[in-house]
UniProtKB/TrEMBL annotation:
It comes from Ceyx cyanopectus (Indigo-banded kingfisher). Signal peptide: none annotated. The lineage of its organism: Eukaryota, Metazoa, Chordata, Craniata, Vertebrata. Residues 346-417 form the ZFYVE26-like TPR repeats domain. This is ZFY26 protein. One of its GO terms (molecular function) is phosphatidylinositol-3-phosphate binding. InterPro entries: TPR_ZFYVE26 (IPR057946), ZFYVE26 (IPR028730). GO terms for biological process: double-strand break repair via homologous recombination; mitotic cytokinesis; regulation of cytokinesis. Pfam families: TPR_ZFYVE26. PANTHER family: ZINC FINGER FYVE DOMAIN-CONTAINING PROTEIN 26. GO terms for cellular component: centrosome; lysosomal membrane; midbody.
Length: 417
């Protein structure tokens, strides 16, 4: 007897009482060996001993329920789905838990010796999502407990809409859930679950972030502008989200400011700028899609530049637009707007284009480029010179006659100024 672990003995005795149906004696025995966790928000289900007790109690209940209740459960669940609310299901849940001594016993042990995650997971296992959410809120549990205990089980079991309905029912403004919803978005992003992320952002009415997700849908994985041409619906969705955001901001500015703490904010000027970028990207997409379809496209490369990237990528877009048309003039207008809108280094872009034209032996097109730059109305006096000077290394390959023509063009342009 002296060599026996006293905690283990009390646990064995408690389990014997449980199996005999003597619930009050079992409580007394377990009280001698079970202890509450130091941290109720730790990401586990409590000690192995507590889990054994819960497991046994739940397994005792199941044979009683399986006979008829499953049919009613299925009907009620269907009814709840049809109403797009989970109220009837929740009522069934409350009844099932309240009127069953074994489930009540589970809750006693969970509240006495379990973690918040263990309590929440118990509710979720028994379709009591509302209770799980209220427990999370009342205990102010961290977002990790929400992700692990409620969010992951919800989307894995196809109950994301039910979760969204309940979040809204408990707090129509969703402010109480802000920290949890943002954590869920970050989790989905890490996992690359962008379709679920987009669905959640729309539910949250987080239009700026939803627009950003649409940008990813538009750009991700595309290998050509022909592919991007088929994804232009995402550009329209970006605009829709940004326009709705602008409307909401202007509506709330007249009244007392609404607390939109967890939704991403953006100034009206920035939103307008982004809408302008989307419009310009649509134009670029249509133009380059047409070039690829007609076979005039010359440039190939692993990266597909869009206006949603950094300045270097935007400069690549301007180069691509000028080089892929039938001639320089065809795409110059769009390229010029890209340079102006994003205040890019124009001479650098024109020089890049000129070097590419030398490689392609399109010497007449260099003359056309200089003409377009000169006629753009914003070219400095020496822009043409700089473009030519930047290409000097390439010019050793230019036939003498073409080089003479270029120099003559430059001289005549200088005389005009």
């Amino acid at each position: 007897k002296s060599g026996l672990d006293p905690g283990g003995a009390w646990h064995a005795w408690g389990m014997a009482c449980l199996k005999a149906g003597n619930l009050s004696s079992a409580r007394e025995k377990f009280n001698r060996c079970l202890k509450p966790p130091m941290d109720l928000n730790q990401l586990n289900h409590g000690s192995r001993l507590v889990q054994d007790v819960i497991q046994y109690l739940e397994s005792t209940v199941k044979p009683i329920l399986i006979a008829d209740d499953d049919y009613f459960a299925t009907l009620r669940e269907l009814e709840a789905t049809l109403r797009t609310r989970s109220l009837s299901l929740e009522m069934m849940c409350e009844g099932k838990i309240q009127h069953n001594s074994y489930y009540q016993e589970c809750l006693f042990y969970l509240h006495s010796y379990g973690t918040n995650l263990a309590i929440i997971s118990f509710y979720m296992r028994h379709d009591c999502m509302r209770e799980a959410l209220l427990h999370l809120l009342n205990k102010e549990s961290p977002s990790e407990v929400f992700i692990e205990g409620i969010f992951i089980p919800s989307y894995e079991n196809g109950k994301l809409h039910m979760l969204e309905n309940l979040l809204e029912t408990i707090d129509p403004g969703l402010e109480s859930w802000g920290v949890y919803l943002i954590a869920a978005c970050k989790y989905l992003q890490r996992k690359n679950y962008y379709h679920i992320l987009y669905e959640l952002q729309q539910f949250m009415k987080d239009h700026v972030r939803a627009a950003m997700t649409c940008i990813r849908f538009f750009t991700h994985g595309a290998k050509s502008y022909t592919e991007l041409g088929g994804k232009q619906a995402w550009l329209l969705k970006i605009k829709d989200h940004l326009k709705v955001y602008l409307q909401e901001v202007s509506r709330s500015s007249g009244r007392k400011k609404m607390a939109l703490t967890f939704r991403k904010k953006m100034s009206a000027t920035d939103v307008s700028r982004h809408i302008n970028t989307v419009d310009l990207q649509m134009e670029v997409t249509k133009f380059l899609h047409r070039c690829e379809s007609s076979g005039t496209s010359q440039m190939t490369g692993s990266s597909l530049p869009t206006l949603f990237g950094n300045n270097n990528m935007k400069m690549d877009v301007a180069c691509k637009v000028m080089l892929e048309g039938k001639n320089i003039e065809e795409g110059f207008g769009i390229a010029f707007r890209v340079l102006q809108d994003f205040q890019l280094e124009a001479t650098e872009v024109y020089s890049k284009v000129a070097k590419q034209l030398v490689k392609q032996q399109k010497y007449g097109e260099i003359r056309q480029l200089l003409k377009c730059v000169n006629e753009s109305g914003v070219a400095a006096k020496n822009d043409g010179d700089n473009i030519i000077l930047n290409c000097l290394n390439e010019f050793k390959n230019i036939p003498a006659e073409d080089l003479d023509n270029l120099i003559q063009d430059m001289d005549s342009d200088e005389n005009k100024v």
